[in-house]
Write a structure and sequence with these properties.
alpha+beta, ABC_SmlMolc_Importer, 2 domains, Rossmann fold, 379 residues, five-stranded antiparallel sheet, OB fold (Dihydrolipoamide Acetyltransferase, E2P)
Amino acid sequence: MRNRIEDAIKAKSSSLRLVDVTKKFRQIGGSGEVIAVDNVNLSIESGELVTLLGPSGCGKTTTLRMVAGFESVTSGKLFLGDEMIESVPPNKRDMAMMFQSYALFPHMTVYNNIRYGLKIKKLPEAEITQRTNQIIELMQIKGMENRLPSQISGGQQQRVALARAVVIEPKVLLFDEPLSNLDAKLREYMRDELRALQKRLGITSLYVTHDQSEAMAISDKVVLMNAGRIVQVGTPLDLYNEPATLFVAEFIGKSNFLPCEIKEKNDDGIESVILGARITVPSPGKNFSFFKGEATAVIRPEFIRVLEKEDGQFTGVVRKTVFFGNFVEYEIEIKNRIIKVESYCPLEKKIYQVEDVVGIAVNLDGIRLLKNNDGEADA
């Protein structure tokens, strides 16, 4: 049964829009400027969970901090619903943020940590009590109300931090790598819990992480950034199966990058030469525009099968075999180039050993063709 606080959060949830947002910092010890975020445009619909993903220094955290109001916007506009907010102070933006460190007050009990934001808003005591009790029940932390943060586990602290953020019924919830302090198993569990709660509440969420598996698991949309710019925006499936650039293909998941020469286009697909073999690529990718010449064929390891040496399009030599239980990872040398292969359900198949000569079959539908000099323009 939904309680009052769930309905209130869903009703207040708002869209968020960034228009031509740029952030420049003055260079330390110099007169120049560093562009940390470069002309970012992004729309987040009400109730969506959107993740900013990218390598360290790509601008994702700076973008989140500008949305929160902790960093000023050098140029551009921020909209919360129809309201322009880039000049609104952080405490007036009707947002809540979960920090990497949780930022719980160590001297306060769980109960007082959660009710703190409501107290600052000077709400009636009866409403504070009602909302605090409801969020404690929703977050399944009943029985811990009188404990200090130091007396509960990391996962429980995360629940308390989330409860404190949600209880004020914000229009947007911001996450700054909230799971990075947890061990791997608990991190995966809390990731799933967090996503389930976000969907249940229908609260607009902007999430920052450098962990691609985390981004893929929780997001409605992933925004991949590099060097301050958006490289591609899409669902996790879009970014994995339809990378717009070589950077996207390399950052999201594992890939083999093979030199390719594009010859011609016909009714069956794109005629190409890959590793010396003439191959028709039936689905070169949604982002592919036909051209002739040098390119890169991107092939995910799971789209390659290892067979007996007389089968497949290529013949190679196994250079490495690693058994992971649910799959075997191979490194196979073909024409002086190492190809990575992931073979699933290995106990149902033969497991090949180092120095075995094998055949290689590529699922042609899994090949994507990308330009070698693709840019990293905004999506």
